[in-house]
UniProtKB/TrEMBL annotation:
<dbReference type="InterPro" id="IPR052192">
    <property type="entry name" value="Insect_Ionotropic_Sensory_Rcpt"/>
</dbReference>
<keyword id="KW-0325">Glycoprotein</keyword>
<keyword id="KW-0472">Membrane</keyword>
<protein>
    <submittedName>
        <fullName>Uncharacterized protein</fullName>
    </submittedName>
</protein>
<keyword id="KW-1133">Transmembrane helix</keyword>
<keyword id="KW-0812">Transmembrane</keyword>
<feature type="transmembrane region" description="Helical">
    <location>
        <begin position="317"/>
        <end position="336"/>
    </location>
</feature>
<feature type="transmembrane region" description="Helical">
    <location>
        <begin position="379"/>
        <end position="403"/>
    </location>
</feature>
<dbReference type="GO" id="GO:0005886">
    <property type="term" value="C:plasma membrane"/>
</dbReference>
<keyword id="KW-0675">Receptor</keyword>
<feature type="transmembrane region" description="Helical">
    <location>
        <begin position="348"/>
        <end position="367"/>
    </location>
</feature>
<keyword id="KW-1003">Cell membrane</keyword>
Amino acid sequence: MIYTEDQTQMEEARKFGYPDILNHLLKYISKQSDWPIHVTNTNEEKETFLYDSIYKSDCYIIFSLPDLEVLQEQMWDLVESAFWSNRAKFLLVIVGDHFEEPFQEVQTIIDRLWKYYKILDIVILIKIIGKDSIKTIQNRSMVRFDLYSWRPYQSNFQCADTKNILIEDTWNIDVGQFLKQTPLYTYQMPNQYHGCPLRVTAMELKPFLISHNNTERIEFSGYDQRIVHLVAQKMNMRIEYLETRPGNRIEIRMNALEDLLTGITDVICGGYVIHPAITPFADPTVSYTKNSVKWCVPCGTPIPRVKKISQIFKSDVWLMMGLQFILSVFAISWISDKMSRLREEEKTINIGSSVCTVLSIMIGVSIPKMPVSSAQRIIFIILIWYSFALSTVFQSLFTSILINPGVSNQIRLLEELIKSNLDYYYVQGSDEFMNFTSPTYYGQVKLKRN
């Protein structure tokens, strides 16, 4: 249910029993089926959707007044919904005014809905009153309800011509049923379109679309042209290339999208990308190639090997290794001095010999003199296993550092790029496309542009 905010038009709708009709209809539908019903109107607060729902509406029942502006307002509300689908079945009920010659009004409505919204499966219900009973509605025999529809692409002379209007059925008030009992929504689009024109707006973008100078007609080649040609050949349609309006790359594509929305063209091609900014307005084909946008940033500076070697262990590990070295030297020297006093012999290992001994153990070479006492041997064994564990880790990393010490200050994240204060060199078309499709992302990159 959708109706206008205009109070005058609302009063007119109430005069013809519009709210009562709607209440009876909703009550009947809720009793006869288990379908979920979503009731909306144009004067309520719009729902906000952060995504395009995958669950689309299968059918729409639209109550409108005999005013194209009102219908336009209603359709825009539907299109903005996340559940919108122009492939659904539509029943448009015109409430209010009478029509003596309804074909012109129905044709205008169908033409507008097909041109701007590409709605195909639509049935329009209109109340018809005979000329002799305009003032006396009580004459039931002169009042009827007609169901109108249309049949496009019947021949090469009737392609998407909205003049092909026909009456599907008529409701007989006296009998209380439709005269023909014709099933609705039975029309299927043909597989062959009888050579009807397929209007294509093509924008050159190599290698997707390449234009060729020809004084007689517009010709293209490339990936997109092959796809359009295969589609037209399969559907038996005739390709008609339309000229693009002047402008830069973004303006030309925006103008082409506008022409598609207003029904001037049927297909637009030329390196379009599947993007959330475009897909709500047009149906994309399946993507046949993938492109990615990458930032080209300067390489990081090489790290000095000495600095990289110093980073093999953390500072506290290096500190503990130095402390262990000093304690080991004094422990070996003290034990040697104590043992020489007990045996009244000359001291065998002095401070200099202790330093050479501990250093030899840590770097994995032979020591100048073997330990004599058991206490010295215990310290030596502990140092050997301790040094073996450290040297294994150190030597494995030391070899890789000598080969490739790595680089520093390499930009890997967008935050690092923003803080880098680098100059931004760009291609005009790519920069405009990024600004148009991702303005939030684009606005974060505040670099000096060259």
